[in-house]
Design a protein that fits this description.
The protein is α/β, with parallel strands linked by helices. It contains 9 helices and 8 strands. The chain has a single domain, classed as Spore Coat Polysaccharide Biosynthesis Protein SpsA, Chain A. Strand 5 and strand 6 form a beta hairpin. The longest helix has 18 residues. It is globular.
């Protein structure tokens, strides 16, 4: 998140994280955000740690196809910040499993490490929120850094940005690109855990999965509304947050 996004959604996200999570969080930004680091919350300079991200942004920020903020499918530059944050965290965080969560999430109920363990399988490279007939929901992904093919996977994914072959794909945003690399590795026999195998089309699978019992993901226009809509839910939730 940058400073503007921090003021819009990120501060609320971090406040809820501090109250409800057991593990530490890395906050990546291309500019300094005005909050103090703590034991569980630390800020990292994205452009300093991932100069290839800055180079990618500089190469492509003036492209005509990057000027429409509503054209998410072609958001190569817009979503590069997120993707390079993932690259840095999964290769540098001292953990066997690294969880990515978007900055427009809100944790309304305590989320413990046992829940994370319930969403992983040791022989799977990552756990993700899948949707049949559409790209995955990458607002929440768990990466298994100890998988024998993990660093190959990250290198293949990152190379799409380093040599600009990303633009040969049908879509350029983070979720679609993640899926293309994932599917290529699945064809090689690498396993991934789909947390939401029942997900369809544009379902809001994040909140309809077990994650919705603990978190909300205010994707798209929901950022301005401050909460996902009741009409987004097709599974029953007992949390007071949804009542």
């Amino acid at each position: 998140m940058n400073r503007k996004y921090y003021e819009r959604n990120g501060k609320t996200m971090l406040d809820s994280f501090r109250k409800n999570w057991e593990c530490p969080i890395r906050v990546y930004s291309e500019e300094k955000i005005d909050f103090e680091d703590s034991i569980n919350v630390k800020q990292y300079d994205l452009f300093e740690l991932e100069p290839e991200c800055k180079a990618f942004v500089e190469r492509h920020k003036d492209r005509g196809d990057q000027q429409n903020p509503l054209e998410l499918h072609r958001g190569a530059v817009r979503f590069a910040y997120k993707t390079f944050s993932v690259f840095n965290a999964v290769t540098n965080a001292p953990a066997d499993y690294v969880v990515w969560i978007d900055a427009d999430t809100y944790t309304h109920t305590p989320f413990d490490n046992d829940l994370i363990r319930s969403l992983i399988e040791p022989d799977c490279l990552a756990s993700y929120l899948g949707r049949e007939n559409n790209y995955s929901e990458c607002g929440f992904v768990i990466y298994n850094t100890q998988h024998p093919r993990f660093y190959d996977f990250i290198s293949s994914w990152k190379m799409l940005y380093l040599d600009d072959s990303l633009f040969k794909l049908e879509q350029w945003h983070d979720s679609f690109v993640f899926d293309q690399v994932r599917k290529a590795y699945e064809q090689q026999g690498v396993k991934f855990k789909n947390i939401t195998p029942e997900g369809k089309d544009y379902d809001h699978v994040f909140i309809n999965s077990v994650l919705g019992d603990y978190m909300d993901h205010m994707k798209g226009p929901r950022k301005n509304e401050g909460k996902s809509r009741k009409s987004d839910l097709y599974t029953k939730k007992s949390s007071e947050y949804w009542n």
